[in-house]
Design a protein that fits this description.
Chain lengths: 411, 260
């Protein structure tokens, strides 16, 4: 690893020196020595974070009194984070669960200790919010991550006890049209037979940089589901690390992104099958228009002895203009027998035969394009819960070419 | 727009020469179709029947090298595909494409309203539209569940063809070109589809049936039968020509033509 001092980190270190604990300083120094990730790092092959050298990284010092955006359909039970800090006045949760701050340190979760964006989160985050969902309870708890300006480093770790069910919709947004950076860390520990249904909807403003580090350790017969709709920000990245460590564990990862203008949306996933009879499915759809860019970089690792693994990866991408680009890299690393792994990735423009069929029925070209683009996302959208889906549709559609022409059809 | 009278010229194709992927397929094709008529086009595989149909609907993959196609006095080949559709040209595809995620009934409504706007008529509201669709679905013996599905998504071969005819009966085109709509239909479906086509027959409309089977013509009796071979119409006659073709095949007609 070639070290290269980051000027932004050096500035930051100087400014924060009096306030940071030794442990945090050490983390910051390690990160500083490594520099921000660039495509030279295999895990960041499609994402270049050198842009962070020119950004304000310091956390906003005063929690801005911003309100939850009125149109954000968070449920009555929710954790609201403003600029990375839990904002208790706006949050509410059922008595059955525990929510408490805990010391924020990088834990031993697989390669967490070496991920540089996670280091940034650990060095600069306030504290981590630990949420425990007790055995056999069912909880709906939404999350709002709201950023204004500067850096926000929210961290939440969920422990979902045996047989418990957590359903959470995470709304992530930067509300001011300012340069902001959000690096979030959401970690889930699923005990035997637990289920988590986690939806992420990202609608940040146009100058935001948003990085979401999501880790799930999934126990015996437990199931972790992640759906993402990435619509906002200038540059975004989702990093999914899923460890299926109990026999019969499963995960389903689906998502869509819309990269128009000059936006960049990246997704990386590493799914590790560690025990027999685990299942993982991935279904991603990306659309890039104008000069938008995106990537899907997904890796499935099947450990020695993880026989009976079932896994699938599908990434389909649509380019609506000649300057748009989406890259894909589905990877498989199989060290066991009797596994069924399927993977496929495609990137192309609108299907000419479908286009012609719609035109031959009298639809104009703009409408036909919009209808086909929308339909392309349909596979993924139909999996969203109704309230999240409506929220996504209202924002996604508005950004598609000729959106007004197809609103009637969506209803 | 003037009322179309029986016998008016609907489509006039003169000397049409067209290439696809650098290969010459149509080699000087002439065909005249008048209001009130049903024409059947038969001919060997690869003769250019679908090529002709797709060119008339405006598919962009073909290079028109020479000739003309005049539709109700307008240069058809100069119109965009959607403009042709709105003026009443309908193509029933030989292989209707599946469009997952695009709602079948939405497409039908958008298609009908685009045609009505062109005709200077008001768009239909949801109730009026569904009344028409229900009636036509009954005619086509189609279950209403097909409306909610993606366009042709997961439809069987026969269901796709029925869906094409459903669209046709709702849109009531002036010129319907049906490319092998009968292929792959069971006997009952063939009757249903024929009923749909016959319901469209009127003095101010015309139908072109591309088919390989004379049996369809027992149900939809054509005024003319043409043989397309080697990129041209090599023989035209009345419905007895179809019976003769069934007996004798095409070889006797192709000899002497410059088949590709
Ligand atoms: N995109 C294309 N590229 C190359 N050749 C093509 C293309 N489209 C059509 N052709 C060729 O043009 C010729 C005419 O095809 P067409 O589909 O019009 O035949 P057809 O008369 O409809 O045959 P069938 O009865 O089998 O449906 C065929 O030889 C076909 O292979
Ligand atoms: Mg054909």
């Amino acid at each position: 690893m070639s070290g290269r001092q980051s000027p932004a980190l050096a500035r930051l270190r100087a400014a924060l020196l009096p306030t940071l604990s030794n442990e945090r300083l050490t983390t910051l120094d390690r990160l500083s020595a490594l520099g921000f990730p660039t495509p030279r790092d295999d895990a960041y092959r499609y994402t270049n974070f050198r842009v962070l050298d020119r950004r304000e990284l310091a956390p906003a010092l005063v929690v801005n009194a911003a309100q939850i955006p009125g149109d954000m359909p968070v449920g009555k039970h929710r954790l609201v984070f403003l600029d990375g800090r839990l904002y208790a006045e706006a949050s509410a949760w059922p008595d059955s669960i525990q929510v408490q701050p805990e010391e924020h340190a990088i834990d031993s979760l697989s390669d967490a200790a070496t991920d540089r964006m996670l280091m940034l989160n650990a060095a600069l985050g306030n504290h981590r919010t630990k949420v425990v969902i007790p055995r056999n309870t069912q909880v709906s708890l939404d999350i709002a991550l709201i950023s204004t300006v500067g850096g926000a480093y929210p961290a939440i770790s969920f422990v979902v006890e045996a047989g418990a069910e957590l359903r959470t919709i995470e709304y992530q947004t930067a509300i001011d049209d300012a340069e902001s950076l959000t690096v979030s860390a959401l970690h889930f520990e699923l005990k035997d037979g637990a289920t988590v249904d986690h939806t992420l909807v990202q609608t940040s403003s146009a100058h935001a940089i948003v990085v979401g580090d999501v880790r799930a350790r999934v126990g015996r017969d437990a199931s972790y589901r992640h759906r993402s709709a990435v619509l906002g920000a200038q540059l975004s990245r989702i990093d999914l690390n899923i460890e299926l460590y109990g026999r019969g564990a499963s995960t389903s990862l689906t998502g869509l992104f819309l990269a128009d203008g000059q936006r960049e949306h990246h997704l990386r996933s590493v799914v590790r099958h560690m025990e027999p009879d685990c299942q993982s499915d991935q279904l991603y759809r990306g659309v890039a228009n104008e000069r938008g860019r995106g990537s899907y970089d997904g890796k499935v690792v099947v450990d020695v002895g993880a026989n009976g693994t079932l896994s699938s990866q599908s990434s389909k991408n649509l380019l609506l203009s000649a300057d748009a680009a989406i890259e894909t890299r589905p990877q498989l690393e199989i060290n066991a027998d009797a596994v069924k792994c399927a993977h496929g990735a495609t990137t192309g423009s609108l299907d000419e035969r479908m286009m012609f069929y719609l035109l031959s029925r009298g639809l104009d070209r703009d409408t036909a394009r919009a209808v086909l683009t929308y339909a392309f996302l349909g596979d993924v959208l139909t999996g969203f819960a109704a309230e999240a889906r409506a929220f996504v549709e209202a924002r996604a559609l508005g950004r598609l070419p000729a959106a007004d022409l197809i609103r009637g059809f969506v209803a | 727009m003037n009322q179309i009278q029986r016998g008016d010229l609907i489509l006039d194709i003169q000397g049409l020469v067209a290439d696809v992927a650098g290969r010459n397929i149509l080699k000087g094709l002439n065909l005249t179709i008048r209001a009130g008529e049903v024409h059947a086009i038969m001919g060997p595989n690869g003769a250019g029947k679908s090529t002709l149909s797709q060119i008339l609907a405006g598919r962009p993959d073909y290079d028109i090298k020479a000739g003309s196609a005049t539709y109700l006095g307008e240069d058809l080949l100069a119109l965009a595909p959607e403009e042709r559709a709105r003026r009443g040209v309908f193509l029933g595809f030989q292989y209707p494409v599946e469009i997952p995620g695009v709602n079948n009934v939405y497409l039908l409504k958008a298609a009908l309203n685009s045609r009505r706007r062109q005709q200077g008529l008001q768009e239909l509201d949801a109730f009026e539209f569904m009344t028409i669709v229900r009636e036509k679905m009954k005619l086509m013996k189609m279950d209403e569940s097909f409306l909610k599905r993606g366009v042709n998504e997961g439809f069987s071969g026969g269901e796709k063809k029925r869906n094409e005819i459903l669209q046709m009966t709702v849109l009531e085109p002036t010129l319907a070109i049906l490319d092998e709509t009968d292929s792959g239909l069971d006997i009952d479906a063939l009757k249903v589809v024929s009923t749909g086509v016959n319901s469209l027959r009127r003095d101010d409309r015309a139908v072109v049936l591309v088919t390989h089977y004379q049996r369809l013509l027992d149900y939809i009796v054509p005024d003319y039968v043409h043989v397309l071979a080697g990129g041209k119409i090599v023989r035209s006659g009345d419905r007895t020509l179809a019976l003769e073709l069934e007996q004798r095949g095409y070889d006797w007609l192709i000899e002497g033509t410059n088949a590709a």
